[in-house]
What does this fold into?
Amino acid sequence: MRVKAAIVGSGNIGTDLMYKAARSALVEPAWMVGIDPTSDGLARAQSLGLRTTAGGVDGLVEYLERDGVRIAFDATSAHAHADNARKLEARGVMVIDLTPAAIGPYCVPPVNLKTHVGTRARNVNMVSCGGQATIPMVAAVSRVQPVEYAEIVCTVASRSIGPGTRQNIDEFTRTTARAVESVGGAKRGKAIIVINPAEPPLIMRDTIHCLTAGEPERERIAASVREMVREVQTYVPGYALKNGPVFDGRRVTVFLEVAGRGDYLPRYAGNLDIMTSAALRTAELFAEGMVRA
Amino acid sequence: MNLAGKPVTLHDMTLRDGMHPKRHQITLAQMLSVAEGLDAAGVPLIEVTHGDGLGGASINYGFPLCSDEEYLRAVIPRMKRARVSALLLPGIGTVDDLKMAVDCGVGTVRVATHCTEADVAEQHLGAARKLGVDTVGFLMMAHMVEPPVLAQQAKLMERCGAQTVYITDSAGYMLPDDVSARVGLLRAELRAETEVGFHGHHNLGMGIANSLAAVDAGAGRIDGSAAGLGAGAGNTPLEVLAAVLDRMGAVHGVDLYRLMDVAEERVVPMMDRPTRIDRDALILGYAGVYSSFLLFAQRAGEKYGVSPRDLLVELGRRKTVGGQEDMIEDLALDLARAAAARREIA
It folds into this structure.
């Protein structure tokens, strides 16, 4: 039996997530919630057989129990999330937050998802697209030896970045930097985002720089990085190690490219894919627990 | 060209863009010496920040000798007339950095985005205006789009709070006609009270000519650096621009001889290498590449045995933008691998 889920937010992220969830063996997208009745996301949801509302979360809450919705993805905005989360959690729905609001603990699946499932967290936050792409690499280094400082540079195609992210770019850098520390395991973190408008659009690129406390243990770090890349590839097939790890003194640098599956936006928008794939993977692991319970 | 009587505000870049060729290692003593000299010469605006703006301290762009805050707190109290500005690139620095800079006494905040991405500056331009400082929008790599697109982005910055909008020739690629077309259209489409500015790089030797074209087309603020110290082949040499503007009768209010002396006696001696159009800097201008990539390409070229020129041309072909310094080592690794594969076949 698949666990029913609602997707709140009918923009790029919510729509891409819907297509991925529709293929899941564990999660069934039952509702799509928007605020604009003419949005492309809501129209696509209807054609896929989801129930929809343009009345925001308020248009959904009365149906949660009747339709057996147990998981909600919030793909709206940091501003709207607190209110959405309160209404959903009050009705016993587990919330996966794709906004930078970060009320709940950060979740980066290959690093700490199992911990959150173990504690049955009611609200987890998916950090940011850049965080999902880079934090596994920081963790791959920090599980070998202490990382004094980690810095991630995320370059994305202009077309793949919606107005929400643009107006809140500081939230991206702050949230990602914090999670580089708390989830990635770096003592200090920094995040940089660069938007490139080239045509045809460039595939998401990520560079991860770590400064290790001592001389880097090259072979162990290289093996750990390759293993972590394979782990992320299990849910994001387009996640690829491009170059590195490069060692230069205490600096360890990894260069990645992240291609999407092209479910909603084309393949260049790996930033969209890694976020929605991580959120779905999170939902699936929680769903397994719900089915067993 | 008749510039007689035209007012021009000169904005010095030595201590910000000049941080690039200095690998962000300008000492506090050098900062103070140059800033005091410029102030005494009557330069009205002096920028002091990491080369990549507030928060630029990083592995990717280089760790500076001192923090932005240390530089600003040292320089600002010593200024008698000049106003100090700070640069901020959204995605690198945040509103927190901006507030710190204003708390240090910065009077002008310049928020820089790639020329098509002005909307990422909304938070920062808005915050700067709210803090009551002179607020500038800075459209980088402005050669990459046609004038109407640039004008539309400039209007967006104006709506977000920019009181001046800059056309920034980050690659030193533009020719005077490119500058005239862009400045002219912005001047026509922005509100009358909004100033237009021009920031040049000297990679094709066009710094002075482009700045004059900008003033002629209606720009009121022009950037330059003493002795040209800046990324690539440097910025428009400020003392040369001041001399030319004097000859043409434009009004800039800077003491030319004092400015010449600052350039010669304080800035030239601190250069790690002469500011000149070497072949790699020339390629920046020729291929339209972000000027601060220069030293990164030279270092990566040396480390991986590839030609900096090949690297820079490829970076131009891929339409890289400011901030993508991480791409340079990545590309050098790719080119080195391709070269090794070719040797194997041969």
Summary: The first helix of chain B runs from residue 28 to 40. The mean pLDDT of chain B is 97.
